[in-house]
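Narrative of activities, Objective 1.

The group set out to show that a structural description can be obtained from nothing but a protein's sequence at a throughput compatible with the screening campaign. Below is one input-output pair from the validation batch, recorded exactly as produced.
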Amino acid sequence: MDDVAKPAEQPFDQALRDKARNSWTFGIAAVILAMLACGSYITVLIALPLGIMATSNARAVLASPDLDGVSEVYARTGQITGLAAALWSGLVLLLLLAFIVLYGGMFAMVFAANL
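Output recorded for this entry:
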């Protein structure tokens, strides 16, 4: 039993791991808020910057030369979830803007025709 080697612990940068964990947390929170967007557009407005922050933090972590495996997993998950939430939130906000412009133009034409 004693001749079985234990895996060596690699030294890691605690600040880098904390930044990667924050990226992961922002990404998961952004995805949850983006999926709750059916109820309110406020959640989409909150999810968009969270997704962008998760993606940018993850890119900064992944660019670090002394990246350990756990931090890389946190950062890659944060990057993927942040990007997905930002894209979904952007799409929903773009559709909202299109509806506002469409109905605004329709009401403007109706009111202009009645003048």
